[in-house]
Amino acid sequence: MQNPLYITNSLSRQKEQFIPLNAPLVGLYVCGPTVYGEAHLGHARPYITFDILNRYLQHLGYKVRYVRNITDVGHLVDDADEGEDKIAKKARLEQLEPMEVVELYTTSFHDSMRALNILPPSIEPRASGHIIEQIKMIEEIIQNGFAYESNGSVYFDVIKYSKTHDYGKLSGRIIEDLIAGAGNEKRVLEGQDEKQNPADFALWKKASPEHIMRWPSPWSEGFPGWHIECSAMSKKYLGETFDIHGGGMDLLFPHHESEIAQSKGSCGKAPVRYWMHNNMITINGQKMGKSLGNFINLKQLFEGDHQLLVQAYSPMAIRFFILQAHYRSTLDFSNEGLQAAEKGFNRLISAIHLLPTLKSSATSSYDVNELKEKCYEAINDDMNTAIVISHLFDAARLINSVNGGTEKLTQEDIVSLDETMKQFVFNILGLMKEEKDNSADMNGIMKLILSLRDEAKQKKDFATSDKIRDELTKLNFIIKDEKDAATWAKS
Amino acid sequence: MQNPLYITNSLSRQKEQFIPLNAPLVGLYVCGPTVYGEAHLGHARPYITFDILNRYLQHLGYKVRYVRNITDVGHLVDDADEGEDKIAKKARLEQLEPMEVVELYTTSFHDSMRALNILPPSIEPRASGHIIEQIKMIEEIIQNGFAYESNGSVYFDVIKYSKTHDYGKLSGRIIEDLIAGAGNEKRVLEGQDEKQNPADFALWKKASPEHIMRWPSPWSEGFPGWHIECSAMSKKYLGETFDIHGGGMDLLFPHHESEIAQSKGSCGKAPVRYWMHNNMITINGQKMGKSLGNFINLKQLFEGDHQLLVQAYSPMAIRFFILQAHYRSTLDFSNEGLQAAEKGFNRLISAIHLLPTLKSSATSSYDVNELKEKCYEAINDDMNTAIVISHLFDAARLINSVNGGTEKLTQEDIVSLDETMKQFVFNILGLMKEEKDNSADMNGIMKLILSLRDEAKQKKDFATSDKIRDELTKLNFIIKDEKDAATWAKS
Prior knowledge:
Two copies of one chain form a homodimer. The first copy, chain A, has 16 helices and 17 strands. Chain A is of the alpha/beta class. Chain A has three domains: 6-278, HUPs (Rossmann fold); 308-315 and 333-428, Four Helix Bundle (Hemerythrin (Met), subunit A) (Up-down Bundle); 439-490. The longest helix of chain A is centred in the C-terminal third of the chain and has 20 residues, at 335-354. The radius of gyration of chain A is 28 Å and the shape is globular.
């Protein structure tokens, strides 16, 4: 008997049993990247976190529709709805068409996700591909009186909305503070006075003459605000109310708070039943930031190409490192931590390799079934991968002990342990064996072998030289005796 | 002095010198896949062909904006504008949301393209993401009198258009034949009588009640016709007139002919200066088709998983096979052809490996510069990769002859030949060395070497056993002497 899955719902700040709206279907939405630069360590965490959720829900037999968007328009440099579009800015700096920037970094993002063995989402919609749906939702919000047009732009009326709705509930913000304080110092900025209140947020922005990314709308040639895309696309592909919405804690406010307001403001329904948020990654105790010089992107990590890195880290070491912390805890990046993760990961893989070679006994000295139960208990307890991994380490120790003869397992228990290990390590935690290119090793060893054969021949030890030739032939190697030396090739 | 690049323009049916509209910029558009199934051999050819063009234009110093679309809506099962949408049909059969089908096969398509070392395009726009642009272009065509609404759908008026324009010029169709003949037998089909003439083609289709993929438009809730997406997206990202449009010959009519009509019918300008078309792939002399049982997808080829395949073929063998024919020739697939390609490819790679080990002479017996010139001549002659490869084979023979002592090259010529080979093989033809997983070989060889060490020890030949240990240590192998036998690991 398995206990059910509990997850922490950011909305109630409590662990709640997960009960899907329309089992066996599960709708899952996770905020994807704004594709104006290389994916970094801060991206790896949410996508690995919700990859585990996606994998585990599938493991439990649910049919998951996992939607993770690509933000390719509307995310402004300044969060107070001002400043250039992040992608348009990058395009200007790199002398590219904005969609070239989008394509470049989307491809790169996919490369990094694949390296980290993150399963692709079922649908990966782009904001620029859903302008019609966004305009329609804005029209509905205006119709319901929760938004107003101002100089060709449209803003969500937070004050009006908060009179009848609980704006700030998800993020724990107090509406009075927001109205009084937020962004007041920015009101002097151009365009900011279009807002009736600084707490209001943009649904549609009129494009300035030099702005390339623009579409016609009832209000102006312009582009959608950042928050509306997720509301429009999650509704299109998952319905007005769906099961789980995930993202990093930095998105709680204003992004996710605004999503709730937009959905309630358009169709009157709360969009999401379970909100899940992963905590942040710090670097040697500091917040990660471009200005702090501690901003490490994933390709730099994979290649060890950054001043803070003492070596390259494989994607699986990084994945393992992230999984060794509970997703709701902060996680501090350090070389020591990653090196330890690398060793831990290798220890698990070695144990799995050892498993099929174990000699079985008539009785078991260890309760393999209890170990399995503990793994499920941990993953069901708000996806506590840190505890799952500690149990897997216990399993690895057990395997080594059986190998060393200090513990005993029956054949049945060996098979069961093998299943549990593979299920959790490969399927649920999504770790995989890493292939290494060992052609350099191969060349070195073949050179050694051929020199041993040469020596044997010179000593007239033909038994040895023949053995070498025969064994290599069995392995499909072709050895040719050239003028100077022997050469080898694989047939 | 290099001769300029000539390419065959399908419009003039002649080789024409390529002169870009706005050098150093080049605009290139290639019709991408309709993502409702696995990419097959027929997809590999156009994307490899235009990958060579993209690579070579960049090699020549042009800045290429390469747009290759994803058709995710509007491509109907029946080319006469009837029948279900290909993606909607697949979604119905697989019980998925259409965009889940799109995502699944787009990801799979990207995987295959990456395996074939095809560079990603600069922009990969999706039809469903450009509904607004397509509606706008349809409105312009209606305004110019070249399209009409009928029952919520919009059709291009081929008869009216052909009175003032040359419909059929690209594909060599005679307009009278089209008007009299095409599709007449289909007029009885539902909806077909919406057309004033069977030669007309759909720009917008009203969605039937059960049709999921639908957007609002001035005419109906519906979806765009297949042809309009390429016109709208090429215009958006490359302008009203751009340099090169590529695709398979099967797209000449009606797809590309319709693109020309749509552009001229909306803005009055011819969209494309050079139309390029690759020829088809046949399988053992037969057309490839799902009903003929000879439909091989790329993953089956990579894995040898099809009744017509006697083995698996590596992506590079397939790429090489396709490049050994001129892109405008038909290419017949056969196991023999692919096996020959595999050997040919390996011969080139082996020669490149041999190059740096060649001993130089005081004089050269071969004109290395002429060989390079010949390679450029061939690629400049309408991208004749078949001839390029024959010259590269000459180069491989030369390298082997120098190695065997029957030809001579100066150090300078060896360096020059090395540059030419690498430039053409890797950069222009886009071939790459393939990494092979040789861990099985490694295990076999290590077992052999450890047994040789064991024997040497038993014979008290410590010189040999020490040599083995020392050499392995140099290669960073760790050898442990266990109770039963020695084991090895890589440090």
